[in-house]
Design goal:
22% strand; 2 domains; 6-stranded mixed sheet; binds fe (iii) ion; Metallo-beta-lactamase, Chain A; alpha/beta; Oxidized Rhodanese, domain 1
């Protein structure tokens, strides 16, 4: 067995690669759209053949990479028959199994976080992938997408805690850096769902969480109901640009990670599209960045050289994403957005000029 756990820092999502080492057939559980390129590179380097992408559920916090990976590898898309999604190759029900080479995962319906949540259990019951039904010392929320605390309680007790005590559990997310747990551990220490907690206690707990809705929900849920296929496929460039390790967001915007920009700042033009007061304000600015506020970008674009790559910067990455599109439409071939803007740049403690701590 080949097994890899992959992470998306933006949404704290885990993606899992499982492959049969004999036949090299592989499946990916919960791939993330923005990481389709990364996952594709790993698949090629490991020399495995992607035959399935599986979703644990219709996610609200990230867009699935299932459609992009299908375009690239011809992998089949599978998720719950109760997901409400269209465009999958197979709709799974409780008790079925998904085969990859000589290995398989068993499908267990674990609704409650959403109506269509599945847990995938490896054939020898040594590993299980619980999605958001059971997180490490926690569980997914139950207040939208057909969520139901009573159903979640019964799902976890009947379908997850009935696995062997030593079975390792791999969740859909972790926000604290934990990577895996076990049935025994969660039955003892999960503050919401441990053996000692009653159904009424759990339902009371879940009813009073009072969480805000996820930031990406309005984009992610409709996109995931199409298995990650963009609404207008042709607006989404599937060709890879090669001047930098770019990734393409679901919105079709090329992005660069802060560490690459920091290491390559001498090779690119860094254009900061914030207002002058922000440029000199508490976040500071990247050394060598040129201030060109978004409102003046088009009338002053001749100040940006066309033959050098351009990296667009703002506070959070939103205005600069718009600037990236505008400059691209104006004929600039090598232009990308700084992912997460100055906030993520500072969060990663990369150097700035000016600014305060
Ligand atoms: Fe979820």
């Amino acid at each position: 067995m080949i097994f890899r756990q992959l992470f998306d820092a933006q949404s704290s999502t885990y993606t899992y690669l499982l492959a049969d080492s004999a036949t090299r057939e592989a499946l990916l559980i919960d791939p993330v759209f923005e990481h389709a390129r990364r996952d594709g590179a790993l698949i090629e380097e490991l020399g495995v053949k992607l035959v399935w992408t599986l979703e644990t559920h219709v996610h609200a916090d990230h867009v699935t990479g299932a459609w992009l990976l299908k375009c690239r590898f011809g992998s089949a898309i599978a998720l719950s028959k109760d997901s409400g999604a269209e465009g999958a190759d197979r709709y799974l029900a409780d008790g079925e199994s998904v085969v990859f080479g000589r290995r398989s995962v068993e499908v267990r319906a674990t609704p409650g976080h959403t109506a269509g949540c599945l847990t995938y259990v490896l054939d020898d019951r040594s590993l299980a992938f619980t999605g958001d039904a059971l997180l490490i010392r926690g569980c997914g929320r139950t207040d939208f997408q057909g969520g139901d605390a009573h159903r979640l309680f019964r799902s976890v007790r009947d379908k997850v805690f009935s696995l062997p005590a030593t079975c390792l559990l791999y969740p859909g997310h972790d926000y604290r850096g934990l990577t895996a747990s076990s049935v025994a551990e969660e039955r003892l220490y999960n503050p919401r769902l441990a053996d000692a907690v009653g159904e009424g206690d759990f339902v009371g707990y879940m009813t009073h969480l009072g969480l805000p809705h996820p930031k990406l929900m309005a984009v992610a849920v409709p996109a995931n109901l199409r298995c990650g296929r963009p609404e207008k496929e042709d607006t989404m460039s599937k060709t890879d640009a090669d001047w930098a390790p770019l990734s393409c967001t679901f919105a079709g915007i090329w992005e660069l990670q802060p560490d690459w920009v920091a290491e390559n700042s001498a090779r690119v033009q860094i254009i900061d599209v914030r207002e002058p007061a922000e440029f000199t304000g508490s976040l500071g600015h990247i050394m060598g960045a040129k201030l060109l506020p978004l409102g003046f970008l088009m009338e002053r674009k001749q100040e940006i050289a066309k033959d050098l790559p351009v990296v667009m910067v703002c506070r959070s990455g939103a205005r600069s994403a718009q600037a990236t599109v505008m400059l691209g439409n104006a004929g600039y071939a090598k232009v990308a957005n700084l992912a997460g803007g100055m906030l993520r740049w500072r969060g990663q403690r990369l150097p700035v000029e000016g600014g305060t701590d």
